[in-house]
Amino acid sequence: MTAKYQLYTKKNMHKKKLIDSHGRVIHKLRVQITDACNFRCFYCMPQQAQFTPSQELLSYSEIIDICSNLVDFGIDEMRVSGGEPTLRKDFCDIIRGLSKLPVERLGVTTNGFFLKDILPELKDSKCQHINVSLDSLDQDTFRKITKTEYFDKAFKSIVMAKKMDFHVKVNIVILRGINDHELFDFIKFSAQYGVEVRFLELMKIGPYHKNHSQLFVPAQELIERIEDKELLEPQSVNCDSTSFNFHTSSGAKIGFIASESQPFCGFCSRLRLTATGKLRACIMSEAGMNLRGVNKELYPEILQSVLGMKPTDRIDHIKQPMYQIGG
Ligand code: SAM
Ligand code: SF4
């Protein structure tokens, strides 16, 4: 099965487009800029996590060069992630550099710890889509999940980002017996602050790839619980959206990312660049090819190979934890 490039006309410009052999248009890139993190969310990383030494991470200019090349081949949306991306001292430089690329959307996924202080810099950049992971609205549960005391910092960052008119989404991994009782607290929070909340199914990735069922809550169960109390109005989304979204009768905006129970691999539009320069085809597979130090002339061949690695059927699990993949 081979991938191909296709020229298309968009806003009177000729641009390359990445299409795989199953007709999926690949236009999004997840950019992991570090695997280090100051939180220890128990489902994401072990307490004694090993991080890549900073001198081995892609440098600022390597990130910008690789991303710029990928934009020339059809990437038009990027989301910077980690580990915790804001831990990098040159995080704002990277965002400013990526902002100069002709992408339609630039976003970041963060635990919110450093976010409040850098919001003014982000406001002057193209990075207007901020996803903050906040698995609990309760200090004790937050501590139990993240092994940190940083609830206030994360919460205040979200409120401030919303005040500053960023597109803010709060991501919650729902864990049975741990935070699933907070479903309606998050719905209230969304209605009160006007922030979209998205409930993520725990994926069979990393520490819980085996004992997944003990914590797993399917999105459908959450929807049924909500429907007992509220009306849900479905919202339209792009066909490659990872979430399905609703407005609730109480004024909340909610979404569900049902990666396990309703996988969306058939519509996947994403590639992943790891913090050391590997271009990966899929979150569930370590398969990929190195782009670090690679001449742009070789990109077509590499892209063709990597697109050929994209599975259509869901791979069941991966032992590698999310902080190393770039969530
Ligand atoms: N540190 C940043 C953060 O927490 O937002 C960015 C990286 S983190 C790996 C990205 C997202 O992956 C977070 O929302 C986190 O909750 C999610 N995640 C980590 N492990 C997961 C798993 N096994 N299943 C589902 N989501 C997971
Ligand atoms: Fe860190 Fe994000 Fe993983 Fe939590 S989910 S440990 S914040 S990388």
Q: Report the end-to-end length measured between terminal Cα atoms.
A: 28 Å
CATH class: Alpha Beta
Strand composition percent: 25-35%
CATH topology label = TIM Barrel
List low-pLDDT spans: 1-13
Reported for the largest beta sheet, the result is: 12 strands, mixed
Class from helix and strand fractions: alpha/beta
Descriptive report:
It is globular and about 55 Å long. The strands form two sheets. Strands 10-11-12-9-8-7-6-5-4-13-14-15 form a twelve-stranded mixed beta sheet. Strands 1-2-3 form a three-stranded antiparallel beta sheet. It is 26% helix and 25% strand. The protein has one domain (4-325): Aldolase class I (TIM Barrel, Alpha-Beta Barrel). With 327 residues, it is α/β, with parallel strands linked by helices. It binds S-adenosylmethionine and iron/sulfur cluster (SF4). The site of iron/sulfur cluster (SF4) has 13 residues, from helix 9. The site of S-adenosylmethionine has 21 residues, from strand 6, strand 8 and helix 9.
